[in-house]
Amino acid sequence: MNETIGVDDALEHIERLRHGETLTTEAASAVLDLYRTGRLADYQLTAWLATLAARGLRFPEIVALTRAYLGPARREGAATREGRTVVDKHSTGGVGDKTTLVVVPLVAALGVRVCKLSGRGLGIAGGTIDKLESVPGLKLEFTASELATRLAADDLVIGSLSGDLVPGDTATYGLRSVSGCVRSAPLIAASIVSKKVAVDAEAVVFDVRYGAGALLADRESARRLAGLLVRLGGEFGLRCRAVLSDGSVPLGTAVGNAVEIDEAISFLRGTGDRRLRAECEALAVQMVRVARPNEPEQRIRERLRAAIDSGSALSMLVRMLEAQGGDTGPMLGGDGYCRPRARTAVPAPRAGWITDISSLDIGRAALRLGAGKVRADDVIDPHAGILLSRHLGDFVAEGDVIAEVFHDGRDSGDAVALVSGAFSIGRHEDCRVPGEPEPVSEDDAHSHETGMIHV
């Protein structure tokens, strides 16, 4: 297949893929070019993506797809830089996952250079860019040269890629979200790694979440994806680590966009949910270790806690937001960024202990409120969201407020019902115990899987 193919050739290529033809960089690039030049329709590219997701890809095909996503930004090995290692971090997403907003300034406060490239939400998994757009004036889209300039000036930047930096991923990312292709491990891996390679990252820590509120339902699928990400990153010269995180229960107390920004700020001021603290610390440790392999882990943990206690991590967040044009008034003034038009309290239907909180139902409720997108042309409400007032293991009396729903004042009955149903109330001994964050071992990261990879 070459650059002169037509739509009929692309459709024939899809048919051949279904019958086992090997995906090549050239073939994938040709299909993506057809779409980007307007000759292939959304539904036709969606058919191609759905074929890849349903069929699965072998590891060499995932490498080929990643190269096609990169286009002219492709790189075969790590570039040599002078000075400190530049570290990126990527989460596969989960309900209430605001770890980037915490760990990036926290790690930067320890002197690690961080260039964090983020994306938008996929399905019920909120996106860091969607959250940060709650900060008025904040510049988030950068070219490669702009990223380099910002990083040289401040050693810290969070943003997204301009549309032409990773053209293949730009073409497919939104369609994956609205076409049932979100949970394909090969598509996830090619999308994530292509962006890291394009901006010439040197080291990446992957946060791979599992559970009903994450992209992958079970821990072993997440472990395999983590290994795939580390292996694929290594193929392009990146130094990678990964952490597995349990996403079956919402992380922290806030789910939404502006409301999660406010929770991250509170965390950096020293008040935070225990699970959020454990996950942020686990990720931050790996980010420091990938940059400074010889620093003892216990010493890193002590320095991370000191950065919060001293206020240096919060100061780093303020500095980053101001450097990127963001209005820090709501943050410094204490009012916060989340200002919903209306709030609806959700009462406990009966007395008992909170035994479970379904990430899936909370995430669906957030979508109903407008905190994410169901259709590609949906407009996100930055102030929509959910604040969890009670947590796993808490005892509640009938009528106690267990959550608040933030909305625009219109009918929120469906979302309120989902939030209410997300809480399971019963006996204390039946309370769910979420898994602790777990670094992926070297054996997992360097597995040599030769068969078809789905999840």
From TrEMBL:
One of its GO terms (cellular component) is cytosol. Keywords: Glycosyltransferase, Transferase. One of its GO terms (biological process) is pyrimidine nucleobase metabolic process. Residues 353-426 form the Pyrimidine nucleoside phosphorylase C-terminal domain. InterPro entries: Glycosyl_Trfase_fam3, Glycosyl_Trfase_fam3_N_dom, Glycosyl_Trfase_fam3_N_dom_sf, Nuc_phospho_transferase, PYNP-like_C_sf, PYNP_C, Pyrmidine_PPase_CS, Thymidine/pyrmidine_PPase. Homodimer. This is Putative pyrimidine-nucleoside phosphorylase. It comes from Streptomyces sp. SANK 60405.
